[in-house]
Amino acid sequence: MPSEPFDVGVLSPGSRGHDATVSDAAVVDALVAAEVALVRAYAAVGVAPRGVAEAVSDALGWQGPRAGCRGHGIDADALAAAGVAGGNPVIPLVAPVRDRVPADARAWVHRGATSQDISDTALVLVLARAADAIVVDLDGAVDGLTAFARAHRDVPAAARTLTQHAVPTTVGARAAGWVRGIRRAASRVRAARDALPAQLGGAAGTLSAVVADVGDDTAAALPGAYAAELGLQTPDAPWHTQRWPLTELADAFVQALDALGVVAADVATLGRTEIGELSEPSAGGSSAMPQKANPVASVVIRAAALRAPFLGATVHAAAANAVDERPDGAWHAEWPALRELARLLLGAAHAAGDVARGLTLHPDAVARNLALTGGRIVSERLRGVLVPLIGASRFTELVAADGDLAAHVRALPEAAGLDVDALLDPAGYLGLAPRFADLEEDPA
Question: Is this structure's pTM higher than 0.85?
């Protein structure tokens, strides 16, 4: 009897509707594609008949490079149940794949491969397709936030350090910082995705069975043909225990979630009722408090960003323990960590695009908050002007005194002739903030 779906997103609302590319069904499609591609690779190097490769492709729903097979009829639930005994889904996959192809093609299925070849290649296919969707949404977030930064390039705002008002900045400069973080992360996701290799090493990474079958030169050409069929990179050698393709992609995913987490944290903070400088396009409600307008998109992005480093650490721990020629558990530990990491980023990147395109600035609140300290936000500037006139001790007392700072400054005999209003105007002490809001063209 089929089991009930384990996870439909009840506890992962940020990923709901955005994680089909990393579902169990998608993994099975990729596993089948990895098997079909191997038959096609044998044909490409001139060993298997081309007709056999096409028959296998047709029988199993081959869709081409970088795509999983469709309509093959292999059930994910049944495969998962059968995979318990051997600890991976590939062992029970081979028989139903062979059953679905013509009799004269069955000898070519899984020929010379090992379970890790197929599972690693399938995982890479799934992650590459997830990365395709991720970079589209990251680019969308960049576009939306770039427009926001340009629109508010010169709007003075309170910069905050360690939660407190520091000096003036601009809304545009802050948003441009978000853009640069996301853009850098997106470039790393692209680079890691584009470097993903196929896996083909045989039983212990030597391709001995393939050499015995087709000879050294043809065996040496087979991994490249395999990778080409799948739209992946040709591996320099089997990477059964050299896990850099997965750690590099995991690092890029974590970096992307770091960058999105900063945006979400800032938007959530600046959207607090008592601050009120920003609001998301679609606010969420409360089951008990009808007045609430919760920044739900930022909340789910932050949740993803908080979880991501630990998933990335699992991938690294597995890589560091990839012993012998096939790991005993470390290899298996990567699967759920990488899938969940991709799932989190798929949801967070989509949510970030929505936030970026609909983010609203409330200028009155920005101006109100900027004025909260009565001009003390430009104390750094005042110090440079007044300390030479009144000394450091008197200046410290002046800034610490209650009341209107402008009135205190005007009362100083030493300040006669100074344009106090200009000195205390935050718009006159923005440094290079407006220039930092001018985003350079994205090389990607």
Answer: yes
